[in-house]
Amino acid sequence: MRLVALFTGGKDSTLALERAIEEGHSIAACLTVVPEPNSWAFHEICLDVTPLQAEAMGIPHLMLRVGGGKVREIEELGRHLAALKDKLGVGGFVTGTIRSSYQKTRMDELAAELGMRHMAPNWGSPPGSVVREVVRRGYEVLVSSVAAAGLGREWIGRRIDARALEELLDLSERYGFDPDGEGGDYETLVLWAPPFRRRLRIDEWTSTWDGYSGRLVLGSFRLE
User: Is the pLDDT of residue 25 over 90?
Assistant: First the structure.
C-alpha cells in the first residue's frame, strides 16, 4: 500500500516508517505537521530539519501548519490527507504513536472518516522497547527536549547510545517517567537511521532551560 508518513524527525516516527517499509508498503511522502504551541497531538521540536531528513531518505517532503486546539488541528490534518489521498493515490498513513490512547483513537477515527488505513507499527510496544530497538538498529539519535524529573539539562543534545540507554532506563525506573518519552517526557532527533542514504549533521546548536524542562535550539545543519 502507498502511505503518507506523519513524520516528526524523531525516533518513533522514523522507526514506524522503517517498519512500514519492512512490511512491504511504500512511502509516497513524509508529512510534517507544524502545530501551534502546546499541541495535544503533534511534536513541536526541531521540525525545521525534517525536509533534510526526508531528502536523506529519498522521500518527498510536505509541511503542514495547523491551527491550535484539539479539534481544529485534527480537522486541518484531515482535510490535507483527503487531498493527498486523491493527489498521491495513497491508501493510508503511518504514525509513530506507541501508547497514547488519545493519539491512537484520534488517528483511527480520522482514517475511518477518510476511508483510509491508519498504520501504527509501534503501537502497544512494551515500555522501553522502542528506544531499545532504535539503539539495536544503530540509529544515531539525540535527545531534543526533556520535561521530566530525573532528566536534567545535560541530557539535551546527548546521543542515545548503549551507555546512555541504560542510564535512561535506570532513571525512568527511579523517577517514573516514560522510558520511551511518551507524553513528551523527552523527545528526540534522528541524525541517521537505516532508511537514510546520507547523515544529518548539526553544526551549531544551543539549548533552553527553565529549571525543569528544556529543548534543543538548532543553528546550522546540513546533510553529509
Answer: yes
